[in-house]
């Protein structure tokens, strides 16, 4: 079994909200860490270092950040070369849940993370353009 920790990191309290939603769906004991940046005078790099120091080298870390060009994502960027670490930006609940519920019998692969990102991207839909499929049996 692989020990996997999901780290959600954002400006303000988006990360805490995402962590709360994950616990709602996946259970209170789900291994998720929220980093709410810039709520106090603590530098985001200090918050990030604290989280990574508490996770063993053989443990898997999946990081989800809020904005591609944002300072939180930039601060995480240097950890992308850490073994068993994946950093994805533009987090959403669909991706967060998919990653959280992924089996832990082995480490994730980069191709599997890419696949989950692609599937989550499909959940971004302008509902004004959405046409639900109607089955003839629905009448």
From TrEMBL:
It comes from the Bacteria. Pfam families: EIIA-man (PF03610). Residues 3-124 form the PTS EIIA type-4 domain. The keyword Signal applies. Residues 1-21 form the signal peptide. One of its GO terms (biological process) is phosphoenolpyruvate-dependent sugar phosphotransferase system. PROSITE patterns: PTS_EIIA_TYPE_4. GO terms for cellular component: membrane. Keywords: Signal, Transferase. Gene3D superfamilies: Phosphotransferase system, mannose-type IIA component. The keyword Transferase applies. One of its GO terms (molecular function) is transferase activity. This is PTS N-acetylglucosamine transporter subunit IIBC. It comes from Lacticaseibacillus rhamnosus.
């Amino acid at each position: 079994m692989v020990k996997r920790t999901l780290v959600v990191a954002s400006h303000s309290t988006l990360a805490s909200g995402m962590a709360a939603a994950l616990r709602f769906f996946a259970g209170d004991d789900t291994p998720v860490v929220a980093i709410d940046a810039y709520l106090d005078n603590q530098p985001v790099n200090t918050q990030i270092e604290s989280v990574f120091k508490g996770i063993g080298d053989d443990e898997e870390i999946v990081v989800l950040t809020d904005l591609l060009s944002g300072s939180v994502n930039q601060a995480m960027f240097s950890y992308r070369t850490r073994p068993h670490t994946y950093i994805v930006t533009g987090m959403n609940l669909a991706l967060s849940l998919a990653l959280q519920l992924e089996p832990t019998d082995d480490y994730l692969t980069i191709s599997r993370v890419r696949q989950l990102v692609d599937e989550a991207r499909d959940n971004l839909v302008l509902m004004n353009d959405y046409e639900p499929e109607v089955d003839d049996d629905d009448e």
